[in-house]
Amino acid sequence: MLCKKTALRLAAPVAVLALALTACGGGDDKKSEENPKADASRSRTEPAKPAALAAGESTTGKVEEGDATVTYDVAAQKVELGTEAGTRKLVSDPKDAEGLVAAVAHVKYTHKGGAPLKDVPDVGDGTEVYADGTRGGLLIGASEDAPGCEDELELEGWKKGESHVICQTYLVPVGAEELEVRWAPEDSEREPAVWKFPAK
To answer: 150: which strand partners?
Structure first.
């Protein structure tokens, strides 16, 4: 997603990160940018989902990377929850994080087939974090410095056989009982793969 990559490039050098959502436009997302708590608590009508995969278990999907189609193995490894105090430091206005904590999803992607990447990978853009069935609010630029996470901006040239861990950080409500990492190729109609993790 072009707008996300631009935001990543702008957010990386600054110490205080701005709260943003998964989409760059549209009425609902604009409202959510102004009120991230609304996005974290917004419920969606979801179709029936396949059985959850175990942590580290992989699924396979094809992603359009520029003008090439790349096949990846995708495996969510873990979700690390932050604290309320730590989360307030990640946003420009601490009030935006009231009642929320950062959930960092660590997902391992293995390039299984297709041409080497000519640009920043898009495969991680299909990852979302849900808390108790509700999608959290994406915090752009927060994952690059997290332990065990790689910076997407440094992965140009990614070729067959290489694996990288790309993280996504979402704000989720304090006290959630179950977290889900969901992945599907962005803009595809396939049902997402789902990994479930305890929130405590």
So the answer is: none
Which structure tokens are listed for 139?
């915090």
Residue 148 has φ and ψ, to the nearest 5°, of 85, 0
For residues 147-172, average pLDDT = 95
**HEC string for 6-60:** HHHHHHCCCCCECCCCCCCCCHHHHHHHHCHHHHHHCCCCCCCCCCCECCCCCEE
Alpha helices in the chain (DSSP H): 2-11, 27-34, 36-41, 84-88
Kindly report the pTM of this predicted structure: 0.78
Q: Which 3 state secondary structure label does DSSP give 162?
A: coil
Under the banding of pLDDT at 50, 70 and 90, the label for residue 51 is confident
Q: Tell me what the mean pLDDT of segment 40-66 comes to.
A: 75
What count of other Cβ atoms lies within 10 Å of the Cβ of residue 37? 17
Q: What number of CA atoms fall less than 13 Å from residue 115's CA on the CB side?
A: 9
